[in-house]
Design a protein that fits this description.
The structure is a homodimer of 479-residue chains.
Chain A lengths: L6 E3 L5 H4 L7 H12 L8 H10 L13 H13 L5 E5 L6 H10 L8 H4 L4 E5 L4 H11 L6 E6 L6 H26 E5 L5 H9 L2 E4 L13 H9 L4 H16 L7 H14 L4 E7 L4 H15 L1 E3 L6 E3 L2 E4 L10 H6 L4 E8 L26 H18 L4 E6 L4 H22 L10 H10 L5 H14 L8
Parallel strand pairs in A: 2-3, 2-4, 4-5, 5-6, 7-10, 7-11, 11-12
Antiparallel strand pairs in A: 1-12, 8-9
Chain lengths: 479, 479
């Protein structure tokens, strides 16, 4: 069906398929087009507006697919490290981890870390995006005897990210203790701001090799920068194809004709349903490989679109809640709710047309002729039939569904997908009239953590006292 | 704070803390008590009612902690297999996988499958709960040369579960091809119905050893049966303590005094908020070990509580959508939405009071005095400070929060937690007046899959035709 690239399919949100109460009618679709072409908007045509923002340098993430320095820097480092890195460890969180994990799950074998044969001489990949002493301790026990064959890639634009800083301080001491300051210098590579910040200073002082977190690109939009490209290239992922896919998609999402622009259509459908009480947006890949792209999307969508607008009495809190599900697995976990629970969700399926390999089931065992219908079938055919069957059942319950079809899963189509959803996020924010690129609401929690960890200063001490009095356990409410 | 067992803390849902618009007032709390003590209910006091259902044998999952045969059967098999099993593979889906995964993540080291030293002679564990040919193929490539040291535990009550049947047929052929029918018999263990069903017939024919899926215990309530116990015991988890923890909790959740019954309080708070437009229930452990318990809860909650009630015009679709999040990781992904997005969520945190180990950060690097506040701190203290900080920030935005405190993570507290949320589910269903134990809405998808896979019969062929005409791609809607 699809010629080369990924394709969006949206018939199953129309009133024709799921009825006028939950489906989009022709008149409503015209309204969405009007919203985009500027007839009902103060900002003018939205696609033109986003193209204008891009030209004005206000969406620097849009330039990443065209940047040639970043992939060259990354490849240079990869070739320097060839043959002396058995384990590659990312220390990062949020946008400095989710894209790295998503690329690895999508484009390397399931058994990559365990099966030397499938890894083909590349390093194992570990991504630590938490500060759990039990989890991290288990890893340290294992890696302690392997430090000289392990590269630690610390990723933080500022170096102030408390989780990444804590991890780094532990690793730094371990390296210094076990293999000394030269070992530290050789085994750590920092991805950070080009000129300023704590991690830049530390890197210069210690002599770390570095890669750049580009200016103006927020963490959740950074996977196509050195943040995501370095671990991917180290693990054998074709980053040129990844970027080429993003470039292909860029042509499509610049198109000013709404109905030919997949990012605009995704944004319009999401905005339409959120405004009509469907506050949950489920992304459900029918492919293990695409599973963690749904988690990457979860951050992109939540941090970009979860925004308060206006002030005081006029404040409106906006934001669909993104939910990650996995087909066929979650048919046995969530589909009961998805069909019979409240009609409060929009479903986005990801479907693979041609799996990179397939498996035949084998014959039905003799005492089970009931399984005859499954004999000698392709597992990929079964998985896609389950997707169709689930979508059919959801449509039967008037639930709106869109599908992104992947002709196959490879670096190029994954690059297309990433860029498609980044731009769809920008369009959705334009429709909501909110800023997709900031995250003001996370500041209070960060300040509270600093205060609780004893950051010096009267303001911090006062805040710590206030937090403790609010969150101190009152036994009256303990069961 | 907690003496021995896990504790529920719910002060941060009160109007006193988060205000009258989003908090529970004293009057509303009295209404919840009234709902439970039967003053405002047709069924009479709900705790008495659930205790009565249990005594009448209508909730067989409640008996699992007291069953002595199941753990004995499991331990017998574990000792038979000792020394000849390097890899243990669960083939199951939904309730035949999520509990197994949750126990393993909670109670074994993060590096268990990779680090022989941390595995201490026990088998690696793999749980396959999907039919993805790329994922499963990667595993088959690795396991093909290790079949005689690998046990496959096929779990399905009926044997008709299409995903598990397909996996089993592939493994069966592989075993027959590589190590013959004796190898097949030795390497497969079925967990299935005691007397009937396809998998029982196949097992008898092939001579498989078997364990029992108890009668009347739905998949999502089966983790404390041989379904969950076998893989756990094989991997060294203390299943006696797990069951002892569940027994401890059973005493607490039978208590007819509402305010001393943690399952009743959880149910009441969830019901209260769902009825007031908070249709999303986020479970957010601040512990990697507890991460997959949130996924187990996701199935328990969604399949049990996502239910349509009444018919035709009077049908009401019920069901909070459970969402899994992870602290501190998701502070960098979801907390922006959680604070500034719509106030449509109830938060359930899981917090560990004493981590099984801790790690000190080390000194701040010289060029970064800004990190002085983090020097020589415990990572576990940081993680718990982040939980407190995030809760503080959420309370500042009037979002309701409850916390389950684990004194530590071990088999006993995990057993308590599982049983607590199972019974909380039963109470919540009583409040909604729905059946927690069926899942009628998944049938249509199953039938549709059978039809699409070519199950013989006119009805199936007609259904397949209907599905194809509805889901066939219409290029007009393809972008």
């Amino acid at each position: 069906m699809a010629e080369s690239g990924i394709r969006l399919y949206y018939k199953n949100v129309t009133a024709e398929v799921i009825g006028v109460e939950n489906g989009i009618t022709d008149a409503q679709f015209d309204d969405l087009v009007a919203e985009f072409d500027g007839r009902s908007s103060k900002t003018g045509p939205l696609i033109t507006e986003l193209n204008r923002q891009r030209a004005a340098g206000r969406t620097p993430y849009r330039d990443l697919p065209y940047n040639t320095e970043y992939p060259a820097d990354v490849k240079q480092l990869v070739s320097e490290l060839a043959g002396r890195c058995e384990n590659f460890v990312v220390l990062g969180i949020g946008g400095s981890a989710l894209g790295n994990i998503a690329l690895q799950t999508a484009l390397n074998p399931y058994m990559y870390n365990i099966d030397d044969a499938q890894r083909k001489g590349r390093p194992r990949l570990f991504v630590f995006d938490n500060v759990d002493p039990v989890q991290f301790g288990s890893f340290l026990d294992w890696v302690a005897g392997r430090l000289d064959r392990t590269i630690f890639n610390v990723i933080s634009k500022s170096g102030q990210t408390v989780e990444t800083a804590a991890q780094f301080m532990i690793i730094r001491r371990l390296l210094l203790d076990k293999i000394g300051s030269e070992g530290l210098r050789n085994q750590v590579i920092a991805t950070t701001d080009a000129t300023k910040g704590i991690l830049r200073s530390i890197s210069e002082d210690a002599g770390f090799r570095t890669l750049i977190v580009p200016e103006g690109v927020g963490g959740r939009f950074s996977v196509l920068s050195p943040v995501g490209l370095f671990s991917a290239a180290m693990c054998g992922i074709d980053i040129d194809s990844l970027l080429a896919g993003a470039k292909d998609m860029d042509k499509r999402v610049r198109c000013e004709e709404f109905s030919r622009n997949p990012a605009a259509v995704i944004a319009a459908i999401n905005w339409h349903y959120y405004n009509r009480g469907k506050n949950i947006s489920v992304m459900m890949p029918y492919s293990y490989a695409l599973r963690d792209l749904a988690d990457w999307y979860r951050q992109l969508w939540a941090e970009s679109l979860g925004k308060a607008k206006g002030h005081d009495d006029k404040q409106v809190d906006i934001g669909p809640t993104p939910v990650k599900a996995l087909g066929a697995t979650d048919q046995h976990s969530q589909v009961q709710l998805y069909r019979e629970g409240p009609n409060d969700k929009l479903f986005t399926f990801l479907q693979v047309e041609n799996f990179n390999r397939d498996l035949k089931t084998g014959p039905a065992p003799a005492p089970a002729p009931e399984l005859g219908y499954l004999a000698e079938k392709d597992m990929g055919v079964l998985l896609n039939s389950e997707k169709t069957a689930t979508e059919y059942a959801l449509l039967d319950s008037q639930r709106p569904c869109i599908t992104v079809f992947f002709p196959e899963v490879n670096a190029r189509t994954v690059g297309e997908f990433i860029y498609l959803f980044e731009v769809a996020t920008s369009f959705t924010a334009l429709l909501f009239r909110i800023n997709a690129y900031d995250q003001p609401a996370v500041e209070l929690g960060k300040e509270a953590t600093f205060a609780l960890m004893g950051k010096p200063g009267k303001k911090d001490r006062d805040l710590a006292r206030q937090i403790r009095s609010l969150t101190e356990v009152d036994k009256k409410f303990l069961v």
